[in-house]
Amino acid sequence: MRKKTRKRKRENPIRRTTGKGGNYRKTKAGAGMTRKGVKAYRRANPGSKLKTAVTGKVKKGSKAAKRRKSYCARSLGQLKRSSAKTRNNPNSRIRQARRRWKC
To answer: CB–CB of 92/86 below 8 Å?
Structure first.
């Protein structure tokens, strides 16, 4: 006689990242987290220092300029390690995010 197997419900259902209640921008909108998403993350993780992208004009050597430079260096490494399809696609999430950060 065969045992019946039941599917268990997930404790944490998969969260949507875009659309209503989502915390990430769509790729065409520049990828990355929304301001609302960052606030939600910080509420859920007290002590977090997560911030939104540096998108405006910044003074050379300022904190924001240093954050941008650091992000651009990190994301370049991600871009290099991604597949050729992603790397060459101007609409991929990593390329759009880098464009939004002005890398």
So the answer is: yes
Q: Answer yes or no: pTM beyond 0.90.
A: no
φ and ψ at residue 33, rounded to 5 degrees: -85, 150
- Taking the chain (103 residues) in consecutive chunks of 10 residues, what is each chunk's mean pLDDT? 65 62 84 90 93 94 97 96 95 94 94
Domain spans of the chain, in order of start: 27-100
Exposed, middle or buried: residue 95 (CB in 10 Å: 0-12, 13-18, 19+)?
Answer: buried
Tokens of 61: 């050597």
Radius of gyration of the chain (CA): 18
Best CA proximity match to 101, nearest among 37, 57, 49 = 57
Helix (H) or strand (E) holding 81: helix 63-81
25, HSE (Cβ side, Cα atoms, 13 Å) = 18
* 99: DSSP letter: H
Q: Which helix (H) or strand (E) holds 43?
A: helix 35-44
